[in-house]
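Here is the promised in-class demo. Please do not try to memorize the tokens; focus on the logic of going from shape to residues.
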């Protein structure tokens, strides 16, 4: 019985690890997304606003 409980706990730990990994990937993707938006915004400010202002 004790070994079975140990397996269950190990399984839970593995699930937790997987969840943490996927969350890390999500936050990394978010950072990439924000970064690309920042680049687009800078390009817009650098290129568009001088043309837009008379």
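The designed amino acids, position by position:
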């Amino acid at each position: 019985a004790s070994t079975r409980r140990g397996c269950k706990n190990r399984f839970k730990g593995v699930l937790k690890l997987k969840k943490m990994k996927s969350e890390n990937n999500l936050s990394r993707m978010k950072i990439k997304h924000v970064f690309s938006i920042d680049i687009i915004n800078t390009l817009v400010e650098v290129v568009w606003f001088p043309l837009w202002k008379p």
